[in-house]
What does this fold into?
Amino acid sequence: MALTFPAPADLGLGGVVGVPEAADIELELRLESVMEGVLVSGPVRAPYSGECARCLDAVTGEVAGEIQELYVYADRADNPDTETDDQELRVEGELIDLEQPIRDAVVLALPPSPVCGPDCPGLCSICGARLADDPGHAHDTTDPRWAALAGLLTDDTHESGSLRAGPTEES
Ligand SMILES: [Zn+2]
Ligand SMILES: [Zn+2]
It folds into this structure.
């Protein structure tokens, strides 16, 4: 049974990567009747979008997960009066609520740190420039410690120069 659902809001990993709201989530469901209820399984696919973890470029892709859930008939449930048992999914009349299993499957399958490509060089650690745009990008910076040392060397040269100059002037 092929089904398409609009994605619910906030389906993702904290805004870094997720399935855009109302995007098509495709399900290929298998329903099996078992003693306690209905076993629902099948692949779930959805588009995702996010930011490259290295260069912050927009990244899109498709997430593919797998659902496997047992929906228990209400009269077979351990405690039919408890509506807030989130360990247990119920067959509600003829209906089953697929949102939670879809969420779980999609979130589990999302890449936690998507990258725009396996070779993404990321951003320059000094100025934040995108290195992919500028492969030869480099900074002609002098390490501040070396700069200080260079200053000392200059002073030394100057001083020793004047020391050497001293006796010359006296003689
Ligand atoms: Zn990137
Ligand atoms: Zn730079």
In short: The two ends are 107 Å apart (CA to CA).
